[in-house]
From TrEMBL, chains A, B:
UniProt keyword Transferase, yes or no: yes
Similarity comment: family membership: Belongs to the FPP/GGPP synthase family.
Keyword annotations from UniProtKB, A to Z: Isoprene biosynthesis, Magnesium, Metal-binding, Transferase
UniProt keyword annotation of Transferase present: yes
Name of this protein: Polyprenyl synthetase family protein
Amino acid sequence: MEIVARIESCLEDAIDRATAEQCPPLLAQAVRHAVFPGGARVRPQLCLSVAAACSATDEQIPDAVACAIEMMHCASLVHDDLPCFDDADLRRGKETVHTRFGEPIAVLVGDALIVEAFNTVSLACAHKPERIAPLLSCISRSVGMSGGIIAGQAWESERDVDVHEYHRAKTGSLFVGAVVSGAIATGANPEPWRPLGQKIGEAYQLADDLLDAAGTQAECGKPVAQDSSHDRPSAVARLGIEGTMKLLRQTVGEAVACIPDCEGAEDLRDLIAAQATRLVPAKLAKAAA
Amino acid sequence: MEIVARIESCLEDAIDRATAEQCPPLLAQAVRHAVFPGGARVRPQLCLSVAAACSATDEQIPDAVACAIEMMHCASLVHDDLPCFDDADLRRGKETVHTRFGEPIAVLVGDALIVEAFNTVSLACAHKPERIAPLLSCISRSVGMSGGIIAGQAWESERDVDVHEYHRAKTGSLFVGAVVSGAIATGANPEPWRPLGQKIGEAYQLADDLLDAAGTQAECGKPVAQDSSHDRPSAVARLGIEGTMKLLRQTVGEAVACIPDCEGAEDLRDLIAAQATRLVPAKLAKAAA
């Protein structure tokens, strides 16, 4: 099965299992709304591509880990869209969870996805229990309150913020988690993979800043120009569009150079190049062509 | 070390570890505010008492599991107090997390505690990785979206609700989780323990309804008469105070009768009797004496 199909199938299984019995109907609908149809599934694709590059022989654990990374991402989007954070009405081209199902259900959808992400990994490792602790530790770190997504969102409530640390936590951490957990899932030593995750996180943040500044709502599936209207730090505000495009190209190059020597390195390079192109707003890509 | 001291010490270690690096200061403060000082720590005490009754030889895994159960409980309180749920200002005799630190931080505190609960269990099982999956499965079920606390809170957004199922999910599930995970933590077969958890959950719900109807704010550390003002189902509304007292005594008796034959059964009976007395509002206990 192709990577994208494996991700959707594993997510379907996880959500079906989690909502199979005694799940309140609105919550079950809302969880599906938060996860399907997905965005680009960039993080789980990256996770599975790293696992493939590490010559994964078993698909079960990598699939579950990729699916957990995506569930964590979806949870963070649902909570980040809440009225007390971004108060966003639109996500992936449709209503946000709280707009459609109300705030209480949106809070619970995020909570439930965090729980199921961990449970999914743990269930998939029944035959290799020694993988669970390193995987959970990696995933916890990438979403947790010290340097993870949760820390990233919490920096928005602080007066003194190091912008680099804020972006590293809010955006970069889950890319690091996707890459590193992809290696752990196969039993490989994950440390040589960490710099790749960090560079991809930086590139994604730059691309996201560009999309917000120069993309259209149709391209993003959500309102644009949010950084300037929420007065959030952005590379575009600091470097301008040209400067940000240049830095993005440089960072993607650095990411590719970070790929450790391995059998699947070539495919991974192709994926990163394809994602980097996809993420640049259409009108900038055309202008640069 | 006494059970209560072990719980506090393990919680201190878990929160210190989770906030040690790069945790935004407000979030770190808010997480501590949510966990310390605690309430009666009923659930983790129950978890450790069951582990002791199963003749636990190792304290590390039971302590971590008890601590995870309490972190899940604290997470659910913080989210349940949010304006979109109970909109409560007071909890354990002090300001609720969102009242003191704002709603965004309160949402993130709940998220972070869920993450750390799982991570704490996983880290403690490094020497016995085969315990992690059954423990995570048990804890996920007791907090999750099918029959767990999250389901319980979500039933409040539904029109047609089975009151018994609502209480079982919102209150009973974590008592079942505390009891069953206490047994799993020692490597014992958990199934004979499940009915005890269910009965204690029912008793606790009755006691909670009594406290809400006939307790004082000082006793509860939170506003009383919330069931009637939120029009929530309550045993007191259905059976009256006398009827609820009678059912509570009967349910505690049934719980004690559910304790499986084991070395520590006597201590466990004492704990349940002590908790049952402590939970009855002072004026009713006096009247019944």
